[in-house]
Design brief:
With 696 residues, the protein is an alpha+beta fold. The chain contains 21 helices and 26 strands. Strands 17, 18, 19, 20, 23 and 26 form a 6-stranded antiparallel beta sheet that branches.
């Protein structure tokens, strides 16, 4: 029996995953996994936290904690956050699991036995002040390819070039800021170059199936030629190299992280009480393996990971059959950036939108903006429009109208179909539309066209709305009750169909509709198993006379003040980040007249208290001399309420009021931020300036 193994790129445990990460890999994988389960396919969805590497140690140093404590916290937070938006893994593992270390070390020793690792002494930057060899991310300098002056030791984030860290111009240690010296160290290199021809053949075997962006990036890498790649690093944090003479060295994260899919499956199997079950998924030709990821991870899943698996293909290991990588999601026209506070992470979203329906709203909006073939954009206005004009006005409105009518006119039961009433042209048209949707949504999902699939589901809801309107049951209940009963029966059957069609995208609504219809839950969740309800989704299987549940509103409208508040919070957060904006070089210059429109005034803080349910916001009562105002400021993580009272600050006095977390903010405080993100309020050095003074 064919089985479907699905993985998402492992979220990196240096910070909370944001919407860009979600739309890149976890959401499309979850949608596909839910669909596969609804179609009765034997399905396993695996993911986990990527917890090693230099970025983890840097983040831990900034947080003044240990790498283990940091990844423990981030793993727990990310696992809960992903669950909170309906991402339903069979297992969410972690690369600090001892079973993962055992798996990675086993691969490493196998390669040594096969002569695929080359031991070599090499030059590497060494920080004499910190007394450590510097991994690539601990070195910055000028890119040898494009001249970017903040290039990392192995890759330039500006032009994407890869190089040896010794090629970096004007290198400096990120740890001490000093110029490093060059010293000898020993490492093991994996012979990627030995697999050039094999990899080219593997890629071209999938040329008709894989997305163009995946093929082109993979071919570009191969065109440059594969080279030996270091498989070890001088670090304390990571999986120890399992050979003599390798003290103080760990497996390079590029090599061991992708093996996390295998080790997580092993842990899942152990937890199931069937420790050998993992082999049925990773060592069986009947398994179709699909790896979901963002475009920055393409080559790791089309070249490096397949090569690692191929080295043990004689043992039965399978290769990725599909790698449907997405492009990047932008936010309000700019790239997601944690350093610039230009991001929305899942925890923040659920704090601001805590209702169960908001899970579905986010999933649907992200699906309709999924960057499948090119970069796309998430905007709060689009979030509002799709909620109001599609989810609420089409799908939600249809279900609500039909349920209310059935409760009012048929005692809250599915009307019994009169024997003398047959399908007319309207019923035939609706049935054809629903049958077409079942087929077309499935076809689009199997081709990883998620936007098309969601659009087809919404078109089916439009067809159902049209049928309800055309049948006009509010008229036929008076003139032809039997026809009315038949029409409402058909409408309720269609609601069941829609609940299944929409289930991969909006599972909370699917359960709600199924509860109203008295149906068992079928939204493709792990706990529901893999029962095929998809193929007969358009069949009329609701029994006449069944008692219906109470009608509930699936989706509330999003009002303008909610959207305005989100936009204001985003701008306020970015304004206090202290980092240059993404388009800083393109920022237009202003005139003195433009600046003159901004009224800056000194003010004294009279009261301060944290805003409930917000990590960042502090509610301030300030005195501008001529008036008192309430201002909400994103400084709660940098100041206590007690130390704020009595401070003289500078505020933007003529900023249009905005609502944040249900409270009105009547201005904005000015603050500066250092490279670590620490905020400091702008205050006059001479308190004699008084309050209400103009700042110019």
């Amino acid at each position: 029996m064919k089985r479907y193994l699905i993985t998402s790129a492992l979220p990196y445990a240096s910070g909370i995953t944001h919407l860009g990460n979600v739309v890149g890999s976890t959401l499309p994988a979850d949608i596909y996994a839910r669909y596969c389960r609804l179609a009765g396919r034997d399905t396993l969805y695996i993911c986990g936290s990527d917890e090693h590497g230099v970025a983890i140690t840097i983040a831990a140093e900034k947080a003044k904690t240990s790498p283990q404590s940091l990844v423990d916290q981030i793993h727990t937070t990310n696992a809960a956050a992903l669950k909170a938006i309906g991402i339903d893994f069979d297992y969410f593992g972690r690369t600090t699991d001892p079973l993962h270390a055992q798996t990675a070390q086993e691969f490493f020793t196998t390669w040594i036995d096969k002569g695929l690792l080359v031991e070599r002494e090499e030059d590497q930057f060494f920080d004499t002040q910190s007394n450590i060899f510097l991994p690539d991310r601990y070195v910055e300098g000028v890119c040898p390819n494009c001249g970017y002056d903040k290039a990392r030791g192995d890759q330039c984030d500006n032009c994407g070039a890869y190089y040896n860290q010794l090629d970096l111009k004007n290198p400096r240690s990120v740890v001490s800021g000093n110029v490093p010296e060059v010293r000898k160290t020993k490492h093991w290199y994996f012979r990627l170059d030995a697999f050039q021809e094999w990899t080219e053949q593997y890629i071209e075997r999938h040329a008709k199936e894989w997305k163009d962006n995946v093929l082109q990036q993979s071919r570009s890498w191969l065109k440059q030629g594969l080279a030996e790649r270091a498989a070890t690093r001088d670090m304390d944090w990571g999986i120890p190299v399992p050979v003599d003479g390798a003290a103080g060295k760990v497996l390079y994260v590029w090599f061991e992280a992708v093996l996390g899919y295998i080790s997580a499956t092993k842990r899942w199997a152990v937890n199931q009480g069937t420790p050998d079950e993992w082999e049925r998924w990773w060592k069986n030709a009947d398994t179709q393996y699909t790896a979901f990821l963002g475009k920055d991870n393409i080559v790791f899943h089309t070249i490096i990971f397949p090569i690692l698996l191929h080295t043990r293909e004689s043992e039965g290991y399978i290769l990725p059959a599909q790698v449907p990588a997405n492009e990047f999601l932008n936010l309000e026209g700019q790239k997601f950036s944690k350093s610039r506070n230009w991001a929305i992470d899942i925890v923040e979203y659920r704090e601001r939108f805590p209702l169960p329906e908001h899970i579905d709203v986010l999933r649907y909006v992200l699906t309709m903006n999924m960057p499948e073939t090119k970069d796309s954009d998430f905007t709060w206005r689009d979030f509002q429009a799709r909620t109001n004009n599609e989810l609420a006005s089409i799908y939600g409105n249809y279900v609500n109208r039909v349920m209310l009518f059935a409760h009012k006119q048929f005692e809250g039961r599915v009307p019994v179909v009169p024997s003398n009433v047959q399908d007319g042209p309207d019923e035939v048209a609706l049935n054809e539309a629903l049958q077409h949707a079942v087929t077309s949504v499935a076809s689009s999902l199997d081709a990883f066209r998620f936007r098309d699939a969601a659009t087809e589901a919404m078109n089916a809801a439009r067809a159902a709305n049209k049928y309800f309107n055309d049948s006009a049951p509010w008229k036929s209940i008076k003139t032809n009750p039997e026809q009315c009963a038949y029409s409402i029966n058909v409408c309720l059957q269609a609601a069941r169909t829609l609940s299944i069609l929409f289930a991969p995208f909006v599972p909370v609504a699917a359960h709600a509709v199924q509860d109203m219809l008295g149906e068992p839950h079928h939204a493709g969740a792990v706990a529901e198993g893999c029962q095929n309800v998809w193929d007969d989704a358009a069949e009329r299987t609701l029994p006449g006379g069944r008692q219906l549940g109470q009608p509930t509103i699936l989706f509330q409208r999003i009002e303008d003040d909610i959207v305005n508040a989100q936009l204001q919070m985003l701008q306020n957060s970015a304004a206090t980040s202290g980092a240059p904006s993404a388009d800083a070089e393109q920022t237009p210059q202003i005139t003195i007249d433009d600046f003159g429109k901004v009224q800056l005034r000194t003010a004294v803080i009279l009261e301060a208290e944290p805003v409930a349910k917000s990590k960042k916001l502090m509610r301030l009562q300030v005195d501008l001399g001529s008036e008192k105002r309430q201002i909400l400021a994103g400084i709660a993580q940098h100041y206590s309420a007690e130390e704020l009272v009595g401070k003289t600050i500078v505020v933007v006095a003529n900023l249009k009021p905005a609502k944040l977390m249900g409270l009105e903010s009547q201005g904005m405080v000015l603050a500066a931020s250092n490279a670590e993100g620490k905020l400091t309020l702008i205050t006059p050095s001479d308190v004699a300036v008084g309050i209400g003074a103009e700042v110019r």
